[in-house]
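Take a minute with the sequence and C-alpha cells given here and flag any C-alpha cell that looks odd. Thanks in advance.
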Amino acid sequence: MRYQISGKQIDIGDALSTHVKTELGATVDKYAQRPTDATVVFSKDAYNFLCESVVHLSTGLTAQARGQAVDIYAAFEACREKMDKQLRRYKRRLKDHHKERSEPVEFSAAGTYVLAGDEDEWEAADGDGLQPIIIAEMETRVPTLSVGDAVMQLELSGHPLLVFRNEKHGGVNVVHRRDDGNVGWIDPRNLK
C-alpha cells in the first residue's frame, strides 16, 4: 500500500510516519484486502491536533475517518479507531465485494462547478439575477455501483450524499443522509 503522510504547517517526523504506516496498515489489512493507497493529513486547530485519513481500496471504494485530540498521536489513534469501526461494520460486504464483482468499480467523468453564494453578485453580472456566477470548474469521478454498494460507500466516506450510476440501468442516482438518520435514495429515471 502506498502512503502519503503530510502535515499542514506541521513537521511530521519519521517516528510518527512509521507509527502511522504500521498501525493503519494493520487496521486496513485486517478488514479490507488489496488496499491501494492511503492519505493521512495532520493539522492543528487552536489547541487540538486533527488527523484526517482516506484509504482507497482496489474495488474503488473509499473509507474516510477523522480524529482530534490534544496530542498528535492521540489524534491519529482516534482517527484509526473510527476507520477500524467503519471497516469492521462492513467487513463481510467488503470481502464479498470481490466475489460479486469481476472487475473494479468503473468510474465516469463529470463536471463539478462552484457557484457564487451571493445573489446580489448574480444581479450585478446579469440584469435579471437568474444566472449564477461560476467561480470554479473541476472534474470529478462518478462510480458505477449497486444501490447497496452506494449506501456502504456513503457510510464509509462520511459525506452527506453520493452521486453514482446505477449498475442495473445506468442512470444517475443519489443516496443521501436524511435529518432523521435514515438514508434516502433518489432514482430519477422515468418509470413507465
Summary: Residues 14-31 form the longest helix (18 residues).
